[in-house]
Amino acid sequence: MALKTEEMVLNMGPQHPSTHGVLRLEIELDGEIIINVKPHIGYLHRCFEKHCEAMTYPQIIPYVDRMDYLASIYNEFGYAVAVERLLDIKVPERVEYIRVIMGELQRIASHTVAIGTYGLDIGAFTPFLFLFRDREKILSLFEMTCGARLLYNYIWVGGVSHDLHPNFLRQTKEFINYFKPIITEINNLLTYNKIFIERTANVGILPLDAAINYGITGPNLRASGLKWDLRRDDPYSIYDRFDFEIPVGKGWMGTVGDCWDRYYLRILEMEQSLKILEQAIEQIPDGDITSAIPKRIKPPEGQIYARVENPRGELGYFIMSKGGLQPWRVKVKAPSFVNMSIFGDLCRGHLIADVVAILGSIDIVLGEVDR
Predict the structure, then answer these.
(1) How many other CB atoms are there within 10 angstroms of residue 181's CB atom?
(2) What is 149-179 written as a DSSP string?
(3) CA distance linking residue 281 with residue 98, whole number of Å
(4) Burial category of 282 from C-beta neighbours within 10 Å (exposed 0-12, middle 13-18, buried 19 and up)
(5) Which of 147, 143, 138, 144 is nearest to 165 (CA)?
């Protein structure tokens, strides 16, 4: 006679350090084997898209900061690109270079948090401390430029709020030279650590066809083997002027698209961001940063969709204008929200201990999921 078993439902979160924010995971278990995981979102919902209808175009920028609060400058970058296309204005060359420099510094800062907290999820405390130490150097560069360390209101429609500090480029070069050996150090501490590999390799495998069908973007898509990056494949700003590679997942043990691949791809992306920064610093021209900022932003009637490659994937803004000072509609395609859709499939059949490893590997920010 077969033994009868009962399934159990376990709630993880929303107050749980490894859910990376206010996220509740309803986990259906058979023993320690996961049958299904249902994410419950919305705990951080702030009605951002509806608020935009009552705000002028410049007033929206502080709101976009607060979606992905670990990549605020890139939120502003994407929004500015969308409104500028709606207005059909071209920004000065110096502004384009400043935006790329700030954007790639922000990408590195975001990835340091993703990698550091992922190590902490698995049980490695030292890389977390090291990478937060290094992130502080980037935040100090931002503070030197615009006075803020997390939420910036720096990239404006048509320009930026402040020109670079006289010491900014020199200190950014010093950071680049400082950070290159740090990547090697993190690889020695975490990437090739036997325990870390055993917790992440061949866990949460995302096949490429599933990634495409779910609309997954960013590092999570590239880790599954597709060389797709909007900076190269649908260029915006001046990214087509820089020489850089698009890393893709290779698989630690022959399996592409597992947790280890998604983690390691962010290490490789930081190396490529350093390459872009070096080129941008060498090429940046002098010039005015405010000449293209409109005194009043009142786009003609119409609509626009613009997308950029933020640290978590494709960040898209759909803006509809009726010719007023406020947008008629604003809709955001948030990469964290889309990437979260695959989570249940990634967890199915794994052990409950793997939930934390899989969730950390897709690198979500709940402010962007909930908006």
Answers:
(1) 9
(2) SS----EETTEESSPPPTTHHHHHHHHHHHH
(3) 9
(4) exposed
(5) 144
User: Does residue 254 or residue 11 have the better pLDDT?
Assistant: 11
**What whole-number distance in Å separates Cα of residue 247 and Cα of residue 222?**
7
What is the DSSP-derived secondary structure letter of residue 260? H
**Positive/negative CA dihedral, 197, 198, 204, 209:** positive
What pLDDT, in 10s, does the model give residues 43-100? 888 888 999 999 999 999 999 999 988 999 999 999 999 999 999 999 999 999 999 9
- Residue showing tokens 């597992």: 258
CB 306 within 8 A of CB 85: yes
**8 A C-beta contact, residue 276 and residue 270:** no
Retrieve residue 36's tokens.
């299904």
Whether residue 29 contacts residue 8, with contact meaning beta carbons closer than 8 Å, is answered with yes
How many CB atoms sit inside 10 A of residue 284's CB? 17
Return left, alpha or beta for 305; rule: phi > 0 is left, psi -120 to 50 is alpha, else beta: beta
d(CA 184, CA 178): 11
Q: Quote the crossing angle between the two packed helices 93-122 and 126-146, to the nearest 10°.
A: 160
Starting at the earlier edge strand, list the strands of the sheet with 329-333: 302-310, 313-321, 329-333
CA distance to 68, 240, 265, 324, per residue, from 312 (Å): 9, 20, 12, 32
Outline where the chain has alpha helix (H): 48-51, 57-65, 72-87, 93-122, 126-146, 168-186, 194-200, 208-214, 219-222, 230-233, 259-283, 335-340, 343-347, 354-362, 366-370
Segment 104-119, tens digit of pLDDT: 999 999 999 999 999 9
- Measured between alpha carbons, how far is residue 273 from residues 105, 233, 305 in Å? 8, 16, 25
Q: Where are the domains of the chain?
A: 8-370
Model pLDDT for residues 278-331, shown as the tens digit of each residue: 999 999 999 899 888 899 999 999 999 999 999 999 999 999 999 999 999 999
- Quickly name the fold that domain 8-370 has: Cytochrome-c3 Hydrogenase; chain B (1.10.645)
